[in-house]
Amino acid sequence: MEKKLSSTSGAAKRRKLKETKATLAKLPKLTTFLKPIEKRAETEVESQNSAEVVCINQSVEHDDIEENIATGNKNVNEEDVNRSPRNHRNKDKEDSNSDTNDAIEQINLEKSSELFSTDIANFHGKILTKDIKKIIVLSESCRPKERIWLCYSPKLDAAYCEPCWLFSEERKTKDNWREHGVRDWRGLSKKIKIHENSQQHIFACCIYEKWRHNETIDKNIEEQIRYQSNFWVQVLERIVNITLALCKNSLAFRGHRESFDNEYNGNFLTQVQLLAKYDNVMKQVLSMPDGSIKYLSHQIQNEVIHCLATHLKATLTADINSSPFYSIIMDTTQDITKRDQLSQVFRYVKIIKNEKDEATSIEIKEVFLGFTEIYNHTAAGLHEEILNLLEKHHIKLSNCRGQGYDSANVMSGIYNGVQALFKKNQPNVMYMHCAAHNLNLVINDAVKCCVEVASFFVMLEDVYSFFGNSINRWDLLSKYTGESQITLKRLNPTR
Predict the structure, then answer these.
(1) What is the pLDDT of residues 138-190, one digit of tens each?
(2) Integer Cα distance of 466 and 461 in angstroms
(3) Where are the bilayer-spanning segments (predicted)?
């Protein structure tokens, strides 16, 4: 005996759909609370609804066919199976139409909750960050046209206030408008009027409107930061220009007392005070209270000087590297603290070009890159220090074609001097004695060879000592010379 397949009959399914229809008929309608949706969204919903209705009909028809097969109906063939859906739809046309309308209404209820993802029910127990609030404000919510703040939650079946939910500061007191919604439909109009006139609702709506028009507190802070940044840029521009003016004229920056209360407070602060009389930016800086940031301290002055020096060195070294050839002139001298300093001078060829990038002429440039303290005074130590300086400034040794030093043996020695060690690394580097130093030595030797000339300079030194050691005699000499530029000077022998 064949075992019968168990399945739900079509009559039972139709009975179940009628029960669902009766349940849905008792639910409140949502059309009074929903805003019209865009046509594109309506088209998508209708297409999805029609597709699901077809699936429902096909599933019912397929179950009826399986029921006939299970009862052992042998007369069912392929043609009957193909024609059975059409026969079933014609037989139960009225029932299927009513069931279809109920299914569409149920689908519309589900779709309405999916379209409005900013529903308050979706955020219970979640922390509302700044980004989430911005998305909720700019998104489409389920609300009527008359009141922008009033929203409806399909999941909670309640009305709520979106501005109070997002921006109300009264979190200690319980308020259904921002927590779980209001479900009292009969007294809803009265509650809406009371809530609209509350102070916390008005304050929340003001913030809500600012967020809607992208006028948040963050934007005000950004504008304030932009203003402050622009102000301090102008302040630093004036400080840099004052620094350049003092450096150009080789003037000291600081005085004995660095305070605006003192009349003599150094060249830098004096220039700042002078500029503040005619410039509102520096005037605002000086009007700030004590302890405020003003960028006028000696640490800032040193930092600005260092930045300008670094930029100047980078510009000069770029010009040296862009030239085809250059030469170096190095010498050591003692500073006021009796420390030996190595001076760095570079001579190079600069090619002048026109607008078409064609060479028109050349210029010989000579630049000074600074001093470096020397600890090793041997030829090897000085040679290593010079190579380190070239590497530090990123100057190519292969472009060097000349070197100039004084006549000291450690510098100009043929076998172990600095110039000999340089030639081992770069054979094209030719050594030339310092022209100015050489001329001074020649003049000194020539003077010493002539007795009359030597006696003349000795007499000049004695005359200078006679007048220079007495103030009265120097005043007497000034009366005879008057405004003439002729004056006595001490002899300066070559080191």
Answers:
(1) 777 777 777 778 888 888 888 888 888 888 876 656 777 877 788 888 888 88
(2) 9
(3) none
